[in-house]
TrEMBL record:
This is ABC transporter ATP-binding protein. InterPro entries: AAA+_ATPase (IPR003593), ABC_AA/LPS_Transport (IPR051120), ABC_transporter-like_ATP-bd (IPR003439), BCA_ABC_TP_C (IPR032823), P-loop_NTPase (IPR027417). PANTHER family: AMINO ACID ABC TRANSPORTER ATP-BINDING PROTEIN (PTHR45772:SF7), CONSERVED COMPONENT OF ABC TRANSPORTER FOR NATURAL AMINO ACIDS-RELATED (PTHR45772). One of its GO terms (biological process) is L-valine import across plasma membrane. SMART domains: AAA.
Amino acid sequence: MSVSLELRGLRKEFGGLVAVNDIDLAIPRGAVMGLLGPNGSGKTTVLNLISGALPLTSGEVLLNGQPVQHLAAHHRARLGIARTFQLVRLSRSLNARDNIALSLAFGRDALWGAAARERADAALATVGLPGRGNVDVGSLNYIDQKRLELARAIAAKPDILLLDEWLAGLNPTELRTGIELICALKEQGMTIILVEHIMEAIREICPRCVVMSAGMKIADGPTPDVLTDPQVVAAYLGDFEYA
Ligand SMILES: Nc1ncnc2c1ncn2[C@@H]1O[C@H](COP(=O)(O)OP(=O)(O)OP(=O)(O)O)[C@@H](O)[C@H]1O
């Protein structure tokens, strides 16, 4: 399987703080990987460095073998990197369809007008919001706002989907729906990095997990092995007996 995304010596310093400490990682096309770690371990920063929301201090981000770390976020989006944010970011002055259509105009296919609206409606249907294009974003409940944000991310048909705690804040029924939705995207062959604290979801969705602690990668392997790795348990529990 060819490599879709590769990180080489990825490093981010904020002043004296090393938030991401020389991470190496290769994600094959179609793989679904969980990115775990205690609060503040650097997970969101890694997503920001991949998407281009933040400039890196050193290292490389390769998309399908091509270095992209020098490119702006919108350029990387056009090359096939899409993401959701920890806090939902939607435009409340636009309806659901136009939130997606607007981002498609700047996306990889630069779609406008009827073509963009059609693609937007298809994405809404994929995430369980069929026929809801005209609704005001403000009238959507929390899970539907999350669905809409996901629809916007997948509408551009990205190669890589970065989900930053997309399942956080959902009730148990919504969580089930959310997990099934991500599993359906996985079945379609999308390459996904899932930053998540909900272990039930990680176990169900991700065959592979990477764990970060204090900016470093401390584990990478099959999820059942990683979740029982003493070093990972220690990082989560602060139990230095195992460290
Ligand atoms: N823009 C920034 N400026 C300064 N420090 C930052 C910035 N963004 C993140 N940090 C710091 O970098 C470290 C890693 O933060 P990051 O948000 O990547 O962690 P995380 O693993 O995603 O945490 P959480 O699970 O709580 O979201 C933290 O110490 C954080 O305070």
